[in-house]
Automatic annotation (TrEMBL), chains A, B:
NCBIfam families: PRK07849.1-1 (NF005886). GO terms for biological process: carboxylic acid biosynthetic process. This is 4-amino-4-deoxychorismate lyase. It comes from Amycolatopsis xylanica. Pfam families: Aminotran_4. Keywords: Lyase. The lineage of its organism: Bacteria, Bacillati, Actinomycetota, Actinomycetes, Pseudonocardiales. One of its GO terms (molecular function) is lyase activity. It comes from the Bacteria. Gene3D superfamilies: 3.30.470.10, D-amino Acid Aminotransferase, subunit A, domain 2. Belongs to the class-IV pyridoxal-phosphate-dependent aminotransferase family.
Amino acid sequence: MRVLAFLDGTLAAPDAPQIRVDDLGLLRGDGVFETVLVTGGKPRELGPHLDRLARSAAMLDLPPIEIAAWERLCDQVIGEWSGSPEFVLKLVCTRGIEGDPSATPTAFALANEVDPKVLRARAEGVSVITLDRGIDPGLAERAPWLLLGAKTMSYSFNMAAIREAKRRGADDVIFTAADGSIFEGPTSTVVLVRGRTLYTPPSDIGILPGTTQAALFRSAEKAGWTVKYEPLRIEDLYEAEGLFMASSVRKLTRIHTVDDRALPDSKAVYGELMAAYEGEY
Amino acid sequence: MRVLAFLDGTLAAPDAPQIRVDDLGLLRGDGVFETVLVTGGKPRELGPHLDRLARSAAMLDLPPIEIAAWERLCDQVIGEWSGSPEFVLKLVCTRGIEGDPSATPTAFALANEVDPKVLRARAEGVSVITLDRGIDPGLAERAPWLLLGAKTMSYSFNMAAIREAKRRGADDVIFTAADGSIFEGPTSTVVLVRGRTLYTPPSDIGILPGTTQAALFRSAEKAGWTVKYEPLRIEDLYEAEGLFMASSVRKLTRIHTVDDRALPDSKAVYGELMAAYEGEY
């Protein structure tokens, strides 16, 4: 089951060609996206997702995102959906056709089933390796043209990093700086547990502000946890009492192994955090 | 005038939708490309372009590029072309459809007229600014998952850098490292002239090996120039007797201004180098 609609309300066949070869989203990865989890007919954290889409679009000098129009588009696609009660809604906005000065963005929403591999990762946890992201924590502020912290469609190196992890027998990646600072996963935010405190790196070092991580922090605080945005280092991962990847579709995924080091069993903490998080919806 | 054909020989309408929304080239910028200049019915440096396409594809773990099939595709599209004698041939190969384990790459060639802005840049030269690329010269070797030196479709930051140049009143960009090393332009190779020697940075620092720069070096050597692959620094640009951007469609473009500093008039050197370069074809 899949549903595709464009921002103007046109429903279209997801298995048929819909995009021109000279769309800059294709030729240059020049566009922005969001991935939203829909459960029981409701898109989770839609406001933060659309705010982040708007922020990414602004970083790329794309035309402003009209939040209300995207909300209508999401409503429409969710209304057309007749598959599983939990599904994925991908929102995409590209710069449009190359060389056309009056080009308007190519903007669509695509609903799709959750990948079974994601369901398995949620249940079983994952192993990760740390890989050098090649940037320093001050770069995002110094060089905004590098688009660090924008959710662009130029994700080929994120995909390459995950392939590198699989080559090394792991499932996923946590990116680090040369100085040992922790950034983020290729498609997730890092959350670390120490005592009754949750930690995640501050987004101004050039990482994507996590919508799922923010929702988790909000609900965990209500449940009595302390939450902190603080720089983390590789050694912190190795000594974590609990380590998680937060992302919309995977929700909170337990990391049981980092760089071949087994972490302490965090199933109890995971259960507690997930209860708080799911209580939000 | 435009001509589009897919690698299987299918001709298609370039102004009609041809690509699915779930093509990974679109969703993730996950693919590779080349841009070839065709003059008088002949693609320039097609061998080096296809070799580089194959190298980029290998860096992305894409299926091997079948050189002979791409040569046939280029022949076909060039045969169909009835526009200007000089035109642009773009070659694109993406990872194909998301989530399909038997997905084959989406592979096509698109012929298009040369952008008039490029013709003006060739005639008048350009002004550039230097911008931090945020990486160090050892990173490419240390972190191959970052795909430095692969010509991927994840080019959104290259486009953002050029927009930043225009905001600052310049035409284009030369990327630098934090230590002042020179990398490349967002879509070009840097060539510097000092006396009777041409310099360009070595590609193993994480830049794309330039097909046009290589052809220029080959022809300039025959014409008595010395050519060197050596690290360059920002100060070298400011003190250059001649400074050029090499790329397939712009050929060799004079840089008359770097970071608001006017360079010496290099029209004579440009004329000499262009005579050698054009003598190849």
